[in-house]
Amino acid sequence: MKMPFALLYTFNLLRTNLIKTIACILIAVVAPFLNSLKDIRNEDKIDYQYQKDGQYFYVTQDISNSQLTYEVQTFDKVPHIKNGKIISYSYNDLNILIWVVFVVLCLFPIVGIFAADNDLSFDFEKVFQATVSYYITCELEEGIYYYFYGERFLGKSDRTLNNEYRYIARAFRISNMTNIKSCPVWKTKTQNRVSKLEEIGV
Asked: Residue 31 CB: number of other CB atoms within 10 A?
């Protein structure tokens, strides 16, 4: 029993576009973590404070490089103060890094969709040919090789083409299902004889 067409097509699509496939998987992994890191809590110890012209000024102290440093912070309203410290929150810059990784990963499938170059695109033609070739059969009759997709006759050759083409569909310029449907329904003499024998139950 042969693999269903849709399943095989999906497999070939993923295999042919391995890097883009990995990128899509990583996108799904990274997406839930966008902006997931909480804001960083900052605590600045107040050394001195005063109010002037409706603004609030706070001189805060911090230790930097083993030295005590001072900074003046200005607010339009009284900030959140707890235990003599100004409590504030700042955006976690690691969220930016996650966003950068996410955007870079998104470029792979986006470029693949719009690129004309086969090395960059998803190369749907190659994927289709790889899939269809799996279902193409060959009938040898009187030294001639006849190739079929189901009942559709694709073409013939005086030699086997399997060794010349990685995907036999390329030998007959089959790049989509429309090409196949345009091929005639035809049978070799052997196939006709087998069909007649089957009809009479032999």
From this structure: 13
Structural domain of 174: 125-199
pTM of whole model > 0.85? Answer: no
Mean pLDDT of the chain: 89
Confidence of residue 174 (pLDDT cuts 50, 70, 90): very high
Residues 112, 143, single domain; the answer is no
Tell me the mean pLDDT in the region 53-65.
Answer: 88
Distance CA 73, CA 89 (A): 14
E strand segments, the chain: 40-52, 55-64, 67-75, 81-82, 85-90, 136-141, 144-149, 152-157
Residues 108 and 24 in one domain: yes
Question: What does each C-alpha distance from 63 to 7, 70, 91, 153 come to in angstroms?
Answer: 62, 9, 21, 83
Q: Report the domain count for the chain.
A: 3
52 and 80 in one domain? yes
Indicate whether 11 belongs to any domain.
no
| Residue 26 is assigned to a structural domain of this protein | yes
- Residue among 122, 193, 135, 145 at smallest CA distance from 6: 135
- Written as one string, the DSSP assignment of 145-174 is EEEEETTEEEEEESS--TTT-SSGGGGGT-
**195 and 129 co-located in one domain:** yes
